[in-house]
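Q: Could you fold this chain for me?
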Amino acid sequence: MFKKLGAVIAVAGVLVLAGCGDPTSEEEKADIQRCIKQLESTLAEAGSDRDLRQEEIDSCNDPDKRAVILGD
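A: Sure. Below is the predicted structure, expressed as structure tokens.
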């Protein structure tokens, strides 16, 4: 339970920071969320129970890295 709560807080923090000082479109915010969910899904499929690392979450904020993760 605490791991999921920690992940939710981390995701919320990333989204807040992503919006600070840089106007992010709603579409980009949705893509960031999709990217984070994709990474979490990949971890779950691999049988891992760890939370995403900060650098993995940060990768979703980078448009080029996000495109690779999402396969766009």
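A (continued): Residues 2-70 form one domain.
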